[in-house]
Amino acid sequence: MRLAHISDLHILDLHGVSPKRFLSRRVLGGAHLLVRRAREHLPELLENLAEDLLKEEPDHIVITGDLSNLALESEFERVFQLIKLLGGYSKLSVVPGNHDYYTTQAADNRRFEKFFSPFMFRREFSDLDVDVYPYTKQVGELYLVGVNSATRTVPPLSYGTIGDRQLELIDKRLGAPERQGHLTCLFLHHALHTRDFVKEATSGLLNRDRLLDLIQRHRVDLVLYGHDHVGRTWKQANRGHSTLFVCCGSSTRLTDNPSTMARYRLITVDHGRIRRVDTKVFDAQTRRFVVE
């Protein structure tokens, strides 16, 4: 089977949004968008991406956060209406990124979960739900574990953290009997590789070591994440077992830098093993995603 990994869509949509809603943290975010991000992360590229995914027909698609830019309803609605064309619960899995919790109100109202719960749960999502994350799915050979690393921050910080309760539940889910016989894929938003001092201090995963310890202890096979717009893959060995880590990069970024151009991953799994990881990168001339 083939698993597609996309991330960091950063879709901006201000349709019907009152200027009053920018009298908050969005003032900083909005200014940044006007300068750079609005020109780089284009909704049209998401349409190109969806078209390419429909042609590739992967068995499942994982989206590792930052679907929106400002956590606005209009942004979530635009993304939802497009990705639902790719399939439902059995076809897509999503987790939030820091931009999807961009304001305290969006996080407290669980705006992301209300829009995208059809891709996470078979049941209807409720405000009364607790222990929403991690959630798990069994899809073919895969045992999927969706983790939420997004949290409320103050500008210009974009760090993430995973609460004690969620870490406890991750430990439990990774030790569950239903995991046996499946290739385990854990996915979240924040980066798990080490970056420079400033990025680590302002936008890192604060308790990364605790999650990595669980990944090692339970011998997780595959970890997918985003946040860092430079894609990379790396491995971590542990007593004869190797975990493959895949950072997607942004799937909608239009840039002159080949290392940060819009991209997504296609991961081939067969008989409980990861056979290959292909990267498809957006070609600005042909307006298509091509194999790197």
Structure description:
With 292 residues, this protein is an alpha/beta fold. 27% of the residues lie in helices and 24% in strands. The chain has eight helices and twelve strands. It has helices spanning 26-40, 43-56, 73-83, 104-108, 111-116, 164-174, 197-203, 208-217, and strands at residues 2-6, 60-64, 92-95, 135-139, 142-146, 183-187, 222-225, 232-238, 241-247, 263-270, 273-283, 288-291. The chain has a six-stranded mixed β-sheet. A six-stranded mixed β-sheet has the order 4-5-6-7-9-8, with helices on one face. A hairpin with a 2-residue loop joins strand 8 (232-238) and strand 9 (241-247). The protein is globular, with a radius of gyration of 18 Å. The mean pLDDT is 92.
Task: List the defining traits of the structure above.
alpha/beta, 12 strands, 292 residues, six-stranded mixed beta sheet
Cα(first) to Cα(last) distance is 20 Å
Q: Tell how many strands the DSSP assignment holds.
A: 12
Number of helices: 8
Q: Tell me the series of helices and strands, N- to C-terminal.
A: EHHEHEHHEEHEHHEEEEEE
| Radius of gyration, CA atoms, in whole angstroms | 18 Å
User: Mean pLDDT, nearest integer?
Assistant: 92
- What overall geometry do the principal axes of the alpha carbons give? globular
Low-confidence stretches: none
Strand content: 15-25%
